[in-house]
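Batch 3, record 17
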Amino acid sequence: MVAKKRTVVSAGGGRPGRGLSRDRILQAAMSLVDQEGEQGLSMRRLGSSLGVEAMAIYNHFENREAILDAMADWLFSQMSPPGAGAGWRSMVRGLAMEFRGLALRHPNRFGVAMSRPSKPARALPLMDVVLGALAQGGMSPARRVQVYHALVGFIRGFLLWEMDIRAGRCALELPREMLAEFPHVKAAAARMGLSDLDRLFAGGVDVILEGGLR
Amino acid sequence: MVAKKRTVVSAGGGRPGRGLSRDRILQAAMSLVDQEGEQGLSMRRLGSSLGVEAMAIYNHFENREAILDAMADWLFSQMSPPGAGAGWRSMVRGLAMEFRGLALRHPNRFGVAMSRPSKPARALPLMDVVLGALAQGGMSPARRVQVYHALVGFIRGFLLWEMDIRAGRCALELPREMLAEFPHVKAAAARMGLSDLDRLFAGGVDVILEGGLR
DNA sequence: ACCTGAACACCGTTCAAGT
DNA sequence: ACCTGAACACCGTTCAAGT
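Prediction for the assembled complex:
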């Protein structure tokens, strides 16, 4: 990695440094992460973006990890509860889509949240809603858990991949010269674009729900 | 994070430092990662575990990232090609199980591989085999791609979660006092143990294959 | 109660110099 | 061709001291 210059723009209200608070720190941390990803967040840079020495932050957060955790909590807090009216299928689909919307709106914050161990307390409310929906769909208790974990696994894995593609960290289109060697890839996945990601995600959720019903 | 003492055991044949090579470096890097995860791998520690200064490594790898990439490549190279005889379903299942076996045998190396952008070149051979199997199952080209990505997403997401649980980074059993608030979780997922992970993974793969067939 | 200065124990990487 | 020494520009975190 090149030791490139790192010019940091002061975050939010920035300057004064008076009235440091968990919330002001979290906002500044998120804006740092938005710009450069998790590795862009250092205690020293965070401090300076708030007009304060790095060490001042330790009065409000135990350590760097705690800030990243708070960021994950923030992300989950942005999920609004599902509309009551709709059927169980469109409710599950709606939650999945909303989750992905969050990822698309805040890709770097989402990357942080998804690459850390998932605290159960964070996901429990959502888990309850989804399990309830699957019960309405007529699935047995064991089946519900099964399908829930298939969904959650898929969503996490797929969105990590999608964010990597959108950030240019890996390619969606496969190298043309390699396709010759792999006929099935060539036949099935010849060319894909960003717009296919919508279908791929929605379709994955549907595949799992269909499969869950036998 | 506490600045704890880091005693490093010399890796493999360690001592001499003569005959440094990409392979010797990769082995040492993997053993460092096995012991302490990705963050346990620093160029300086890696050098000292090989009886060499950190800077010597740059004669064989471009930088730290390149070492982590080589580790991901190594992991995929450990996947043996699927048995020819079996049906398409058990072939896909077999590949998934073998992949998980790799994760269980080398959890930290796997964690490294799974948290980095997936290079297409690395996954293409496997992708071809899986798409071929799904074609044998009678799925249309579009459907094949759909189900392939559902599988890959699920496998990545689920195994990241499972590794976090097995490493004690997050809890499998849900906090008993929270269950009261979430009746559906309580009813469906009251208690789970490590042995349920086998079922959960295999079942997830099956759900996706079933769903892929309508 | 909250912030600073100085220090400790680290990082990845470059580059000129040695062999 | 391969390795070392010294340096540069960073890290997270602790702790005594200031206000």
